[in-house]
Amino acid sequence: MDNKSIAIFIDAENIAAKYAKSIFDIASDYGEILIKRIYGDCTQTSIQAWKEKVAEHSLIAMQQFNFAANKNSSDMYLITDIMSIFYEKNIDIFVIVSSDSDYTSLVQKLRENKKQVIGMGLEKSIKSYVNAFSDFFYLDKYDKKEGILSEDYLNALINIIEQLIDEKGRAEYAQISTNMKHKYSDFNPQNYGFKNFRSLIRELLPKMKKFEEKLEKTTYFLLKKEA
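RE: above sequence
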């Protein structure tokens, strides 16, 4: 696989410094991180904890003063910066770290131009914002085992498996995962405390007794319904 180039943009006024390690752990799985920028007003006490992380992860801090109370001054700065980099540099994947839905139009524009856009934020993020991304990770759930999908997600997963079996005679794990992500951009095993899709599926197998698991050439399949 080609090593894709990645640019990370962190809204420090929206995301706490304690998530720094998770942000870079997730992003590094996608390719080579070439651009690392963080936005905020460093005079605000709420983001002072980022100072140490800026040095640790070699982030470029983009200062923007807040001149209005309760207003995130970084929004437009971050948006303008991303669009400049989009036009001026050859970046494959844009990573936006924020729960702020004001970035929804930006994400949509990048994806319209065939860019992969990874989102990272908190579980409070609104669904329309989350679903604008190619993939979305909940930092406050990352590596914390939740153990179960919601009923809607589980039903969707079962429907996808049934459709693939009807169409192809079997449902390959890779295709199940891809189809679920097309439907829900926040469908990532890490959001449920699992390192990979296979581990998540094995946790869910007792809830999917109509299927049996098969292994062929190290690839797992759900081949048929039980008699």
